[in-house]
Structure formats: structure tokens, C-alpha cells
Amino acid sequence: MLTKKIILSLPILTFFLWFFVITSPAYAKGSSLQSQLLDYAGKSYTGAQDPSYLNYDLALREVMADRIKKQFGIALNPKNYSSFDLLEIEALFRCKKSEEPFDVFLKMFPKRP
Predict the structure, then answer these.
(1) What is the pTM of this model?
(2) Which of 71, 73, 74, 93 has the fewest Cβ atoms within 10 angstroms?
(3) For residue 66, which of 41, 43, 48, 83 has the smallest C-alpha distance?
(4) Looking at residues 88-110, what average pLDDT do you find?
């Protein structure tokens, strides 16, 4: 009887453990850039020229540029690329072969003035 209760409660305990492991890095002290992104969670915007959207986009670009610098050692100016370009650049860097240079992938994305 006791073993049935333990077996039935394992999925619930696993879910709570998974939830705390996944959400804890987002609230870590060293991730001030990521906490800026959490301020925009759940908001809707009127368009691409909405000042709130522009602030969100800049915060996302800064987070992505910081992640790329930490993971790959490549410093990118967040104002030169769109947030979607930075997401794609990070994905390409993760999939590149070890002998391929980073410059090949960066040439694929136009820089904004």
C-alpha cells in the first residue's frame, strides 16, 4: 500500500523538481539581462514601432549578444543585428563544424547601420 503511494507520487515530485531546476537560472543573481526580459513577459504590442516593443527588442538583442560572447567568445554588437538574426547566429554556431571559422556564418547576416 505504501509503495503504491510512493510510486503514484513520483511523477508529481518529478514535475516539481523539474520546475524548480528550470526556473532557478532565470532568477539567479548574475542574470540581470535575463531578468530584464522577464519584465516584458505577457505583454502585447501595437506594432514594430511601439516604444515598449523597441525596448524589449533591444533587451533581447543584448541578452543574445551576451550569450554568444559567453558560449563562443565572439563579441557582437547588439545594435548591428536584429534579435532574430542573433538567435539564428547562435543556432548556426552551435551546429558548425569545429574547423569552420565563425566569419563564414557572420557574412550571411547583413549588419544594420
Answers:
(1) 0.62
(2) 73
(3) 83
(4) 84
